[in-house]
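Office hours follow-up: a student asked to see two folded examples consecutively, so here they are.
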Amino acid sequence: MVNKVTLIGRVGKDPEVRRLENGIAVAKFSVATNENYKDKSGEWQTTTEWHDIVVWRLLAERAEQQLKKGKLVYVDGKLTHRKWQAEDGSNRYSTEVVANTFRLLEKREDGGGGYSSSFPGTESAPQAKEFEKTSATKPAAAENTAPADKGGAAEDDLPF
């Protein structure tokens, strides 16, 4: 069975962070996603859905530091449902996404160019910058040092 939610949308409000008695951080924020479609008359319409997001521990602390209202964010997690009793005794229900990860998709504000984070799997921007530096210089060096095969031509620069 699978319970997986993936969202790309805008943060609706700055995260509300609180600490439990044992010191564990929990943050809540909302994300708005849009769907565009043409109605019967051919006019474009936009429908906005609001999603309540919950993050725990270190992810909650990261959300507090990085997420601000209006930022474009990628969220990956699972759908959960809660039931509780309100002060008047009536039953209340909520549906939330408990996020396993999130990534900002906005450009950096420090003017450094590029993106502050990317999709899961690429954790650090310095590695990407180092790759850009080395990949720009490696081809020229590889051409000068490539061994010749039996036919006298340079071998392909393949790892196998």
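And the second, which I mentioned at the end of office hours:
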Amino acid sequence: MSTLFFVRHGQASFGKETYDRLSEKGILQSQMLADYFHQIGITFDVCYTGTLKRQITTGEQYLNSCESRNMRIPKVVRHEGLNENNSRDILISLVPSLVEDGSVTEADVAGLFQDKKSFQLVFEKAMLRWVSGHYDIPQLARWTDFTAAVNGVVDEIMDTYGRGKRVVAFTSGGPLSVVVQRALNLSGEDTMQVAWQIANTSVTRFKCTEKKIMLASFNELAHLELKGDDSLITYR
């Protein structure tokens, strides 16, 4: 049996022109996680990341820490199946129907990227509408397509590293929640509720063989909590 460590990326640049970039706090969170892995003696046989900058940079903090300690650097695999869903396209496609049926107001939409409460309200309603499958739009990737891509990566990891290995995957909240969905057989709506609880650089562990995957722990934050500073725990 192998252990899979799925890590959500560090804090990105919410509200900035380029979101796909770690903030200073996101880099610090990632460095703290790397140090923690070394402190508790966890090493990896292979390191997966998505192809998004925030995912790669989070993983690089661990890889760089291995190099600085003259430790073996694990094999690195980049896979688009670990990328986050395109929330921008989801919002653009589904927000008009949310306004039309009164689920959100024009004021909520106007404050989307300036106010975190407005963003959360609109974002949650749009994502739940997307996973329901009742509002498919031709130009918008479907929830089922997204989950299939994530599960394709999980299949690859299980087939290749399903016995006696430690694998780390630096990804995002969406893909990570899909792996939890697979392990616990959750609905799409429940999977979204899971995704919204996943903190930056939190660790979720799975046990697997080539045929089966099981949840071992969820949303571990010890590397941040040990500092006694709640501001280090972020979700955006």
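Two things to take away from it. DSSP finds nine helices and six strands in the chain. The first strand starts at residue 2 and ends at 8.
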